[in-house]
């Protein structure tokens, strides 16, 4: 009976009630022949790509024993049990209307919480909020909406690689604007605007990525006046606004934007964890509509459960408590890192007012390695991940290679010290 059943399933026999089985009129010879043709040698197609993304590393930064890259949060300190309660409450009383398509700008509850949060902490008012799958999706959408082949984007001469990749994906050319001790130089920007084809300005003004310096009010005003004069939108990437220690952080450009030129970006990757994939855009209504419409072609909407849980967590006060606790911890970690690095005396650096990383310059006589890139490559072989200056350079002709970027917030004080001692040992070996 089992054999007969298999023949029926393969299409050779047909079962007739109270009669039995008979052979089908049209035998599946053709299909069987194809299925059994083991001797046919297929030639794999060679795909011809017209676009290419950023090359994947052989080993991700998180796989290294000491990961100093970027400015990652210490995920081990995230209150998962507390957040679980918010998520459990959402699942117990689900808003079923949110678990379908729609609301590509973000869940109404989270959008409401974010508007209030931006109003209280950054003085950003009268803007629509769009929730994205991290700030990277926001950057990609901006690039696709504003740029085409031949356009130019003014970026800081040392910049954030994923943003650079997003602008390039739209066919834009990048113009690296000189950095001084305060950040982007307005005079250099003006010269490039006058003689170039700049359609967008990208800034990280609070903690310049990667150098960590804060753009002063005078520079901000000069850049904003240029953007207003030439009608060029500014993308303000405020990726770690929460972590400013010496004083209250300067208000974002978006907080005083009468010309509505500023496209404001923020992220929860530094506050929570990168896997949360919660990016925030605060823009005018027309742009918010265009962004929401474009999202329908790519991701449609962000994770509903994560959005609803975050909204619940924010409304309960859990988010604010976590933020205060994390800010205190990051300040302690920064101070310990500064004290340790001063004792070791192998780098020159300026203590940043905020952020989650340090920008260190190799001292000429601190060891046998004088190239930041060489140190970073050697460190990888010893299970240590750091970033070097060449990774952030926009102008390929710039050969500067004397700085490394060290994140201090992503691990315990003790582990940071151990990793730094191992790094210094490589430097002096």
From TrEMBL:
Highest taxon of the lineage: Bacteria
Q: Which InterPro entries match?
A: Aminotransferase_I/II_large, HTH_trans_reg/aminotransferase, PyrdxlP-dep_Trfase, PyrdxlP-dep_Trfase_major
Entry GO MF terms: pyridoxal phosphate binding
Report domain Aminotransferase class I/classII large positions: 79-421
Return the SUPFAM superfamilies for the record: PLP-dependent transferases
Name under which the protein is recorded:
GntR family transcriptional regulator
Q: Source gene?
A: mocR
């Amino acid at each position: 009976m089992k054999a007969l059943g298999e023949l029926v399933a393969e299409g050779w026999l047909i079962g007739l009630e109270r009669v039995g089985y008979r052979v089908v009129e049209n035998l599946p010879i053709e299909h069987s022949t194809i299925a059994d043709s083991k001797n046919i040698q297929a030639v794999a197609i060679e795909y011809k790509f017209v676009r290419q993304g950023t090359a994947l590393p052989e080993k991700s930064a998180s796989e290294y024993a000491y990961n100093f890259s970027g400015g990652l949060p210490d995920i081990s300190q995230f209150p998962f049990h507390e957040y679980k309660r918010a998520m459990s409450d959402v699942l117990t009383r689900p808003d079923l209307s949110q678990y379908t398509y729609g609301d590509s700008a973000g869940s109404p509850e989270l959008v409401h919480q974010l508007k209030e949060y931006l109003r209280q902490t950054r003085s950003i008012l009268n803007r629509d909020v769009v929730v994205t799958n991290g700030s990277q999706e926001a950057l990609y959408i901006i690039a696709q909406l504003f740029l085409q082949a031949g356009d130019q984007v003014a970026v800081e001469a040392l910049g954030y690689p994923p943003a650079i990749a997003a602008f390039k994906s739209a066919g834009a050319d990048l113009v690296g604007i000189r950095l001084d001790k305060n950040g982007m130089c307005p005079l250099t920007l003006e010269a490039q605007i006058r003689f170039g084809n700049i359609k967008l300005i990208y800034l990280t003004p609070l903690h310049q990525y990667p150098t960590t310096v804060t753009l002063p009010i005078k520079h901000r005003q000069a850049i904003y006046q240029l953007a207003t004069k030439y009608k060029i939108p500014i993308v303000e990437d405020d990726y770690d606004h929460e972590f400013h220690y010496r004083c209250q952080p300067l208000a974002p450009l978006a907080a005083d934007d009468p010309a509505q030129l500023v496209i404001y970006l923020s992220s929860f990757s530094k506050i929570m964890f990168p896997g949360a994939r919660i990016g925030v855009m605060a823009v005018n209504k027309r742009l918010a509509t265009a962004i929401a419409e474009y999202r329908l072609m790519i991701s449609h909407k962000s994770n509903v459960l994560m959005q609803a849980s975050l909204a619940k967590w924010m409304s309960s006060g859990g988010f604010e408590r976590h933020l205060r606790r994390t800010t205190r911890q990051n300040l302690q970690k920064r101070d310990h890192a500064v004290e340790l690095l001063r004792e070791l005396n192998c780098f020159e650096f300026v203590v940043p007012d905020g952020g989650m990383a340090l920008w260190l310059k190799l001292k000429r006589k601190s060891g046998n390695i004088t190239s930041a890139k060489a140190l970073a490559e050697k460190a990888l072989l010893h299970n240590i991940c750091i970033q070097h200056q060449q990774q952030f350079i926009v102008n390929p002709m710039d050969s500067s290679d004397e700085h490394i970027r060290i994140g201090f917030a992503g691990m315990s004080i003790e582990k940071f010290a151990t990793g730094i001692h191992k790094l210094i040992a490589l430097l002096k070996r």
